[in-house]
Amino acid sequence: MKQISILGCGWLGLPLAKALIEKEFTVKGSTTSIDKVALLEKARIKPYVFALEINGTPDNLPDFLAGSDTLIIAIPPKLRGKNKDYADANANSFVIKIENLLPLIEKSTIRNLLFVSSTAVYGDANSIVDENTKPEPVTESGKQLLEIEELLHKNNHFKTTILRFGGLIGEDRNPARFLAGKENVANPDAPINLIDQKDCIGIILKIIATNTWGENFNAVAPYHPTRKEYYTQKAIEKNLIPPTFNTKEASSGKTIDSDKLVKMLDYTFTNTTL
């Protein structure tokens, strides 16, 4: 029976852990909240309570990694608000937090690592973007995610696959509520780049099942209507007030291409209309 450690049993990590357990994996999972321990135990996940810090590493991290051959890092960088500026973000550097883990990962049984990243690493490209496109992040989150991607790929103690997700939606992240009632929304003609939680999990399971390591993958549903078309329709479907858009200024936005993932993993998206 194989064992996997999931760093971050949150919106994605918890249902992913449950899906892995259904496939007879043993799962160790981390949470920052002691209140979630019972929830993890009920799901047959071995719980570990800790938060990553820029000063040192958690005492229970070696045990969290012990015996697992795969580590999945599924935690958000939390670099919004006051941390939009790089100078402020240094105090909460996601790069340093991940960098601190590396010596312990190197000493552990981990041989494969999956890092959940974001299409934010591509910045404001106004074109079709695939894995051969040079990342040029403009947000602090995107900059630090790209730095971490490069850091992990350079480490030869384990093989890393990077999964760059687009906007995340699911049962508790209803796209109808994202922009409902808002006014003068920018970029009405920009394409959407979203992915359903079920596909996030399905893709990760396929990467593990096919032992596909050392790769970068974009992960976005092959469905790219304009923001105006999509969010207006979603608001109407839920009887919410549709947003209004700023049509006076030109729209710009990238279209994320996930063909590499579809072909290499032989993956079929389950939700293509979102």
Distance between the termini: 35 Å
Into which percentage range does the β-strand content fall? 15-25%
Distinct helical segment count: 10
Q: What is the highest CATH level, the class?
A: Alpha Beta
Sheet having the most strands: 7 strands, parallel
The helix fraction, in percent, is 25-40%
Overall tally of domains: 1
Rg from alpha-carbon coordinates:
19 Å
Report the strand count. Answer: 11
| Order of the strands making up the biggest sheet | 3-2-1-4-5-7-10
Instruction: State the fourth-level CATH superfamily.
Output: NAD(P)-binding Rossmann-like Domain
Q: CATH topology, which one?
A: Rossmann fold
Order of helices and strands: EHEHEHEHHEEHEEHEHEHEH
Inertia-based shape: globular
What value does the average pLDDT take?
94
Q: What attributes characterize this protein structure?
A:
globular; 274 residues; alpha/beta; 10 helices; 7-stranded parallel sheet; 17% strand
Description:
With 274 residues, the protein is of the alpha/beta class. The protein has a single domain (3-170, 194-222), classed as 3-Layer(aba) Sandwich (Rossmann fold), CATH 3.40.50. Helix content is 33%, strand content 17%. It contains ten helices and eleven strands. It has helices at 13-22, 37-42, 61-65, 86-89, 94-107, 140-154, 176-179, 197-210, 227-237, 259-265; strands at residues 3-7, 26-31, 46-49, 70-73, 112-118, 128-129, 159-165, 167-169, 194-196, 216-219, 255-256. The strands form three sheets. The protein has a seven-stranded parallel β-sheet, with helices on both faces. A two-stranded parallel sheet has the order 6-11. Strand 1 (3-7), helix 1 (13-22) and strand 2 form a beta-alpha-beta unit. Helix 5 (94-107) runs parallel beside helix 6. The longest helix has 15 residues, at 140-154. The chain is globular. Residues 80-85 have low confidence and may be disordered.
